[in-house]
Amino acid sequence: MQVGILGFAKAGKTTLFNLLTHSSRQTDKYATSKKTHVGVANVPDQRLVRLRDLYNPKKFTPATVTFVDIPGVKKGEGAESLDLPALRDVDALIHVVRAFEDPELPHPDGSVDPQRDVESLDLELILADHELVSRRLERLEKSKKRGLTPDETRERELLETVILPALDSETPLREVELESEDEKRLRGFQLLSAKPMLVALNVDEARLGSDAVETPDAAAGVAAVVISAPIEAEVAELGAGEQAEFLEDLGLEEPSVPRIIRASYELLGLISFFTVGEDEVRAWTIRRGTTARAAAGVIHSDLERGFIRAEVVRWDDLVRLKSLAACRDEGILRLEGRDYVTRDGDIMHIRSGV
Ligand SMILES: Nc1nc2c(ncn2[C@@H]2O[C@H](COP(=O)(O)OP(=O)(O)O)[C@@H](O)[C@H]2O)c(=O)[nH]1
Ligand SMILES: [Mg+2]
Q1: Is the Cβ atom of 102 under 6 angstroms away from ligand 1?
Q2: Which residues are found with C-beta within 5 Å of the ion, ligand 2?
Q3: Residue 175 class from Cβ within 10 Å (0-12 exposed, 13-18 middle, 19+ buried)?
Q4: d(CA 121, CA 124)
Q5: CA dihedral for 159, 164, 165, 166, sign (positive or negative)
Q6: Atom from ligand 1 closest to the CA of residue 9
Q7: Fewer beta carbons within 10 angstroms: which end of the chain, N or C?
Q8: pTM of this structure
Q9: pLDDT 10s digits, 296-353
Q10: What single string gives the DSSP state of each residue in 235-263?
Q11: Rounded-to-integer distance, Cα 323 and Cα 54, Å
């Protein structure tokens, strides 16, 4: 699962990327980087930590999210200034919006205005989508001579009557409700404005934790978090004790990095199930609604092919009773079939005949 970090130049994208992925890529004081960076972050999960404490395993494997730091968007250049291949591949977007003032680092637009930046970035995504959809419609138009398949006919209708009008009226596609059939039809296009988005407002340190921060009124379906990237970098350097004190002084409950990683995970509609044992305690990532058999396939394709049943217990019941055997004795270790819908926090043990 990949999340793209996107925004205008000098918003703090690379600074945030470094924090999320423990990297040390060059940030841009004067120049503007044109490099796309890829890094991996562990998803913080207290449940998994409790399970680790219980098993003391040789190996501990949290869930991960991959972050892609995409070079700054240039206004008005739409698709041309975007690293489109990197952007098409990501499953969700974090838009880093500059809300900090710094006379040494002029905003490319001359002033700091989060609301304007949220709207202009959306517009860039909409323009890129518009171009792609128009080209596709032209191609379908040409194919009309040989006759369109029923699928192509439906696609044409969808693009012409729903998608293009939305883009024409500058509505991001994430706000357009579609039947799941149509959503599937569009998925292959990897339309940018259809991807789920999180707005990260990068504010001055003095305003962090204050209620005075006005989050830009991003459209429906867009979550927002407030961060101060340099402050987060300082927090990351501190030991746990000092960290708590420092955060308290700032009026914060926890650093924003774990919050952003978790928010990305949720944005993508992802949940975790766990496998436990002395060898490994591990979180596995699935989409909400995944069946037990498909979940087994995430661990190994053999487990999916030979799936017989899953033994399932809630993570907190296991922590309370301390072993799967005890859960079995208590009668709370359930046997579930292939169609069981896996829940967030399930401990799964797959029985397979392969
Ligand atoms: N004062 C201040 N400077 C910041 C903040 N966030 C990032 N910077 C600085 O802004 C410059 C650009 O940051 P960078 O992460 O490279 O931005 P990018 O172009 O969006 O990748 C760097 O010199 C950062 O140190 C912030 O919240 N406050
Ligand atoms: Mg950068």
Answers
A1: yes
A2: 13-14, 33
A3: middle
A4: 5
A5: positive
A6: 19
A7: C
A8: 0.85
A9: 999 999 999 999 999 999 999 999 999 999 999 999 999 999 999 999 999 999 999 9
A10: HHHS-HHHHHHHHHHHT-SS-HHHHHHHH
A11: 9
Cβ 5 vs Cβ 267: under 8 Å: no
Cβ pair 55, 281 in contact under 8 A: yes
Any idea which residue has 């340190």 for tokens?
A: 205
Nearest in space to 124 (alpha carbons), one of 170, 93, 78, 167 = 78
- Domains of the chain (ranges plus CATH)? 289-352 (3.10.20.30)
Distance of CA 244 to the CA centre of its chain: 27
Paired tokens of 189: 């296009």
84-100: buried (b, 16+ CB within 10 Å) or exposed (e) per residue? eebbbebbbbbbbbbbb
Please report the pLDDT score of residue 190 as a whole number: 92
- Res 21: pLDDT: 92
pLDDT band at 214 (very low <50, low <70, confident <90, very high): low
The residues with which 94 forms a beta bridge, in sequence order, are 5, 198
Task: Look at strands 334-336 and 307-314 and give their pairing.
Answer: antiparallel
Any ligand 1 atom below 6 A from CB of 29 = yes
Per-residue pLDDT reduced to its tens digit, 41-100: 999 899 999 999 999 999 999 999 999 999 877 766 656 677 778 888 898 999 999 988
Name beta bridge partners: 284. Answer: 273
Instruction: State which ligand 1 atom lies nearest to the alpha carbon of 11.
Output: 20
Residue 217 identity: D
